[in-house]
Design a protein that fits this description.
alpha/beta; Rossmann fold
Length: 142
């Protein structure tokens, strides 16, 4: 897939279909984008599982924080990635290794790795890169 541009229908279908989201790089700092996006996703009706090894076991916006994707006790539909581009391959590998793979890996603004995206897509996972669901949701769904 060409990740330079996405059809609005592709993004809208993802945002309508997804119910559970693992948010990698979740921060307790209210000034961080991941915190605001998590708050937005929760207020939009998604179930959000924050993932941050340094915060594991604590609560963030009322949700228990997990150290890694594999620690989340249920399947997630989407992994929202607030990590630098160089870590996207590692995220894809972890997602592929899960017993039930997520339907989508969504890499936040400025996060892009075409090789990682191709690997995810080859294993049946949709990919969005360099976009933010908190921007796309109001534009396309809400």
């Amino acid at each position: 897939m060409n990740h330079d541009r996405y059809d609005d229908s592709y993004l809208a279908d993802i945002l309508r279909d997804v119910k559970t989201i693992a948010l990698l790089g979740a921060s307790p700092n209210a000034a961080r984008p991941s915190h605001g996006v998590m708050r937005f996703l929760l207020s939009s009706g998604y179930r959000v599982f924050p993932v941050n090894p340094g915060q594991a076991g604590k609560e963030l916006l009322g949700q228990l924080v997990y150290a890694r994707l594999s620690d989340i006790p249920e399947t997630v539909d989407m992994v929202d990635v607030f990590r630098a581009s160089e870590y996207l391959q590692e995220v894809v590998d972890e997602a592929i290794a899960l017993p039930v793979r997520p339907k989508v890996i969504w890499a936040q603004l400025s996060v892009r790795d075409d090789a990682a995206a191709a690997k995810a897509e080859a294993s049946g996972i949709k990919v969005v890169m360099n976009r933010c669901p908190a921007i796309e949701y109001p534009r396309l769904v809400g």
